[in-house]
Amino acid sequence: MSGPDLLSIVGGVILDAGLKSAAVLALGGLGALLLRGGSAAQRHAVWAGSFAALPLLVIAGAQRGPAIAVDVTWLAPLWLAGAAFSALPLLRGLAALVRLQRTARPDPLVPDLRHSPALTSPVTWGLWRPIILLPTSAAAWPAAQRAAALAHEQAHVDRRDWAVHIAAWSISALFWFNPLVWFARRTLAQEAEQAADDAALAKGARPSDYARLLLSLHDAGPAATGPAAALGASTSPLGQRLRAVLEPRPRSPERAWALGFALLLSGGAAAALGAYPTWTRPPDTLTCSPGPTP
Q1: Alpha carbon separation from 179 to 70, 130, 174, 273 (Å, rounded)
Q2: What is the tens place of the pLDDT at every residue in 198-239?
C-alpha cells in the first residue's frame, strides 16, 4: 500500500498551521487591544502567550499524518528555504554578540556589565549569565541618565525578555509566510521596550531625564539599534516612546494574570483549531500496488 510522501504531509502541516496561526494571533491582538488602557507589561504578556501557542498548531497538524497531506510537493522545500532565510538575521546577530562579548571591556565595579566602542546604545542579552553592554561614551553621560539606562537594561534581564525575544523570532521564522506573525513580533518587541522604560521610571528616573536619554540615543544614528539578537534601548519608534514616557498612563509591572489569561485563551484556541480538520485527504487516494509475481 502506498500513500502520500513525506513532503506532501509536511506541506499539509505547514499550510494548516499557517492558516490557523492567523486566527490565534488575531485573538492575541484583540486581547492586547482590550488592554490598551493597561500597562505595556500586560500587553507584552498577551503577545508572548499568543506566540507560545503557535507550536501547538504544528504538533496538532503533524498528528493527523497522511490525512493532512496536500499534493503540492514544492511547498515544503519553499517553506524550508524561507525559514532559513528568515532566521539569517537572528544567526548573524548571535554571531555579532559573541564578537562583542569577546572584545568588550568588563566594568571593574559591576559584574556582567561591559563597555564597547562598537555600540552607541545599551544592549543586553543572555539567559543563564545575562550581559549588559554600554557604549564607552556612556562614561560621559549624566549620572541620572546612566542610571536610567542601566535600570532599563536590568528590567529586560529581570523579566527574561531576551528568552522571549529569541523564542518569538524562532517561531516567526517557522511561520515566515504569515505577515501577521512579523507584525506581532515587532509589536512584542516594542511592548518589551516600553515595559522596561516603565521599570526605569519606577526606579526613580525622572521622565524629562529619560526623554533626553532617548533623544540622545536616537541622534546617535542607526547603529544605536545594536545586533538584531540583542535587546536594545532604541528599537521602538521614538515618538511613541516619548509619549509613553512623558504622558501619565498605567505602568504596573504586574503581568502574571495577563500571561495566564493569554496562555489559557490562546492555548485553548490553538487546541480547538488544531483538532479541527481544515481538510481531510480522501481515503481513495491511498492505493494498493500488487507485489512482484513469483
Answers
A1: 22, 31, 12, 19
A2: 999 998 888 988 888 888 877 665 544 567 777 765 556 778
Beta bridge partners of 134: 115
The gap between the terminal CA atoms of the chain, to the nearest Å, is 19
* 83 touches 173 (CB < 8 A): yes
Task: Record the pTM.
Answer: 0.88
| 3-state percent helix, strand, coil for the chain, nearest multiple of 5 | 65, 5, 30
Task: Kindly provide the residue ranges of all beta strands, DSSP E only, lying in the chain, ordered along the sequence.
Answer: 105-106, 113-116, 123-125, 131-135, 231-232
Q: Is beta strand 113-116 parallel, antiparallel or unpaired with respect to 123-125?
A: unpaired
CA 79 → CA 178, 181, 212, 240, 244, distances in Å?
Answer: 11, 15, 44, 35, 38
DSSP 8-state secondary structure symbol assigned to residue 131: E
Residue boundaries of the structural domains of the chain: 6-282
Q: Which three cell numbers stand for residue 18?
A: 499557517
Do 208 and 181 form a contact (C-beta atoms < 8 A)?
no
Cβ neighbour number for residue 228 with a 10 Å cutoff: 18
> Can you tell me the distance from the alpha carbon of 12 to that of 95, in angstroms, rounded to the nearest whole number?
34
Which among 227, 224, 237 has a CA at the least distance from the CA of 193? 237
